[in-house]
Write a structure and sequence with these properties.
By secondary structure, this protein is of the alpha+beta class. It contains three helices and four strands, in the order αβαββαβ. Strands 2-3-1-4 form a four-stranded antiparallel β-sheet, with helices on one face. The longest helix is centred in the last third of the chain and has 17 residues. The protein is globular.
Length: 114
């Protein structure tokens, strides 16, 4: 799980290493994994109803053909976060993954609005 302390470090690094104004809306991407596509399709619909935009639902490349399938769901939402609000969002998405029998909530990324 991503800790609040890790988020504080992430925000500090973004403030130092980028010219982004973190007080303005950014595009936040959130990622889920599962061994089957169907559960992620259902989760995508639920997340869309909560204002997320589905970016992709795809099967991960396998190193060996016998490796188990790993499906990814990538959703985005444009919003402003602080370490505390992002920690709350992450906790909610961990619960969402658990309640919807997904393999995992795998974390987030962020970018500027283009």
């Amino acid at each position: 799980m991503i800790t609040r302390e890790q988020l504080v470090d992430m925000f500090d690094n973004m403030a130092r290493e980028t010219s982004w104004d973190l007080t303005k809306p950014m595009v936040w991407g959130y990622f889920f994994t599962n061994d089957a596509r169907a559960e992620l399709e259902a989760a995508a619909a639920l997340l869309q109803a909560q204002g997320y935009r589905v970016v992709a639902l795809y099967l991960d490349d396998k190193e060996r053909p016998r490796d188990p399938d790993l499906w990814w769901l990538h959703v985005e939402k444009t919003e402003v976060h602080t370490p505390d609000s992002l920690d709350q969002r992450n906790q909610a998405l961990y619960r969402f993954a658990d309640e919807n029998d997904l393999g995992a909530y795998d974390g987030m990324d962020v970018g500027v609005i283009e």
